[in-house]
Here is the input.
Amino acid sequence: MRQASVDPRFTHHPAPKLYGIESYMAVPLFRRNGAFFGVLCAMDPRPADVGEDKLEVFHHLAELVGYQLEQEDELGRRDAQLLGAREAAQLREQLIGIVSHDLRNPLNAITLSTATLMRRTDLDDRARRGLSRILESADRANRLIRDLLDFTQARMGQALPVKFKPMDLQVLTQQVVDEVGLATPGRRFDLESTGDGRGSWDSDRIAQVLTNLLTNAVQYSPPGTPIRVKTEAEAGQVVISVCNQGPPIPEHILPGLFEPMTRGADSGSELRSIGLGLYIVDQIVRAHSGRVEVESTREAGTTFRVRLPRNG
Here is the structure.
């Protein structure tokens, strides 16, 4: 519309008279996905030459506005995602605090009280067995809490803390095997060590690796079969092997075996749940610049092999 006052289509239209408009131009506004948003208008109280060239420029301007609308929508979505991520991070931190403090404190109290009661000499065998089960359950709960905390830390992109110091891996392996053996009466552990087991590692973390591998071997092997443990000295590294005679791990599980909470069916009807243990094992070994290997066949059983460089 070039001049409303003389254009027969708009001479008697109330809008130009109400707003004092002589010239007017409008194009529709669309979002980038084609959704209609509104109208882009240009108005002037003076007559103006509204040619096709100006209308074309106005169409391009409308496209730019549509693009800007899309960018603002995307920024809004990203802001919402960032807010959600911050809230999730705060929730994780709160969860870690609850698990590490509010759950560990009562478990520590249970462990200390049970250990104190077991020192009494007037306990009969039945009472001593009951206290032993309580102590074993509390120890297992503490291990689960430790694994959960390590899992959360690793998933948040933080490296697991390790403190390297000189130690003898063969001595540590013997200690852990003895501890797991006491916690699993009736199971047999055969330990073999060759060569020099000295190096620099985090003894607590390596004990965590051994405990997870040994308890995993106990869980997934028949009660009457032995668990074979071996430490071998090689050039620049020490290798720990834990072998059990349980059913083989299905081939489709092996590629993701060290991912958290991997599940799959074995040859029977039971579901094999790997949980967090092997994931934590892999993360600790990686923090020592080592690697974990697994071999599993029906004939030879399942062997986890941990290769640890002597100097981390």
Observations:
- Residues 263-274 have pLDDT under 50 and may be disordered.
